[in-house]
Every structure is written in structure tokens, then in C-alpha cells.
Amino acid sequence: QVQLVESGGGLVPAGGSLSLSCVVSGDLFGISTMAWYRQAPGRQRALVATISNGGRTTTYADSVKGRFTISRDNAKKTVTLQMNSLKPEDTARYYCNHVTQRYAWGQGTQVTVSS
Predict the structure, then answer these.
(1) Is the N or the C terminus of the chain less surrounded, counting Cβ atoms within 10 Å?
(2) How far is CA 3 from CA 19, 106, 108, in A?
């Protein structure tokens, strides 16, 4: 059973930075394309970024390109989302998962950006 544990969220002013971390249990992490998602109040969960199993290929939502960076450490089974130049519209609960969302969702981590 794969478990996802996100951490690193918090309250930051606009323009600030946060680094989110997701620790993944299970044996298939090294061959899994992973992703970060976010869900703002009253809105559907949206894809933010993806990273291939080897970490060479990444994709980003247009709204975060140039500001967010996704990375992974397969030895530590960790996926990281570095978020810079944060905006109030980045406020949401952030989750990691397989790109196909095949794993049970973790509790997520709340990011709040004040204006």
C-alpha cells in the first residue's frame, strides 16, 4: 500500500518562497512519474507539475512556469516542489500523487499566500 505524506506548507507574504516535500512509501516509486496537485477552496484539484521517473522530464502548469520547480530523490523516495515568487492565487492545499492519481491521496499541506 503506497502512502503519501506531504509537508512544508505555511503562511507566507506575496513574493515569498516555500519548499514542499512529499515522502512516498512503496517499492514502485523509482519507476513512477510523480506530480504535484493543488486544490483551492471551492475549486477542483488541479495539476501543478509532473516529473518523470528519472527526473529528466518535467512539466508545469502555465500559471506556475518560471516560479515553481519540481524535483525528486529516488533514493529517499521524495518529491519536492520549490515555490518562488508566490502569489495570493497560489493559495491552496497541495498534494502529491502518481501522475495518474492511482494512489490514495495524502492529507496534503496548506499553502497560504497573503497579499
Answers:
(1) N
(2) 20, 7, 12
